[in-house]
Amino acid sequence: MDRRQGYLATWLVLLTVAQAAALLAVYRVFVQTRTGQAVDTIALTANWIGYEELYRPVTLVLNTMSVVSLALVTALVFFIAVYRRRYRLAIVAIVVIAGANVTTQLLKHQGLRPEYGIDPWREGNTLPSGHTTIAASVAIAFILVLPRAISAAGTLALAGWAAFAGVATLAAGWHRPSDAVAAFLVAGAWASATSLILVPSPLAVVPGPDRGILRGTGPGWAAGTLLGGGVAALVVAGLLLWLTYDVINWSIEELSRTRLLVAYAGGAAGIVGTAGVVLGLIAATVPRLVPPRAPLARATD
Rounded CA gap, 17 and 188, in Å? Predict the structure, then answer.
């Protein structure tokens, strides 16, 4: 392993630890403390704003996420990677999807949620969101295996779809904002940890069958767009949820529509921001993990 590979391995380890630490922080704040539960509950309760208009599109997206659809998408991801002869990449993509979704179910059922009497209608732990984990892990898997010629546009489309799925769980009243945020962190941590098996591959252009792969610009600008937009959204989320902190001791009936909308927007911005940062970091790292293949030399007369 040369120096560049050592730097890349270190980066992946740090990224995994950072996302795992962020996941723990989200759990400790929004599940284990009364303040966090109150902010989360206010944001979720506000989902009645625009509910009738949003119900059909959000449930349509969420209902497409099932065990069968996940299996079909996983098979497609595997096929793309194998067709490109990226065999280790196929393994990474499958492990990310399987590992993230199994981890989410374990955390959801093993996590303890103290009862502070804030949200008596929803008992037990719901963090992380299973539907958001499916969307996040599938988006990451596709970002890993897409040919470079379409990776930038594909990355933005996948990130947008995953972020929408996360917000949809809030809009449908299925999950609190922190549940969706945690789901992205679970999928991101699995992606960075599992990608360590790709580091030993040579970081150079090598011959291969990816037709037209060198014509694309790569996911670089898309990664920058996601990271910039994600950080901006998280700043907005922090501001709006800080404003919500002022009313955590009020009853839901006392909160005005404006107060509820502030909390709702803050929760949605937090989900979108986390999606942008997590998927942006993955997209920025992929070109170093998966070098482009040069076209095979043609026979000459």
Answer: 11
| Residue 199, domain extent | 3-114+125-204+215-293
Q: What is the DSSP string of 8-22?
A: HHHHHHHHHHHHHHH
**Other Cβ atoms within 10 Å of 143 Cβ, number:** 24
* Cα–Cα nearest to 271, from 189, 187, 167, 173: 167
Please indicate, yes or no, if residue 28 is contained in any of the structural domains.
Answer: yes
Residue ranges in 146-256 assigned as alpha helix (H): 148-171, 177-194, 220-245
pLDDT level of residue 215 (50, 70, 90 thresholds): very low
Comparing C-alpha atoms, which of 273, 38, 46 is closest to residue 170? 46
| pLDDT for the residue numbered 206 | 43
Residue 68 is assigned to a structural domain of this protein: yes
Has residue 120 been placed in a domain? no
Which residue has tokens 């404003």?
A: 243
Span of 12-26, 43-57, 102-116, 157-171 with lowest mean pLDDT = 43-57
Report the Cα 161 to chain-centroid distance in Å. 10
Helices 34-45 and 177-194 pack at an angle, to 10 degrees, of 110
Q: Per the structure, how many domains does the chain have?
A: 1
Note the pTM of the prediction, 2 decimals: 0.91
Amino acid at 102: V
Which CA distances in Å does 92 have to 20, 127, 148?
Answer: 18, 25, 18
- What is the signed CA dihedral for 92, 93, 99, 100, rounded to 10 degrees? 130
Could you list the beta-strand ranges (E) of 28-149: none
Q: Is residue 151 part of a domain?
A: yes
What pLDDT does 24 receive? 98
Average pLDDT over residues 147-157: 91
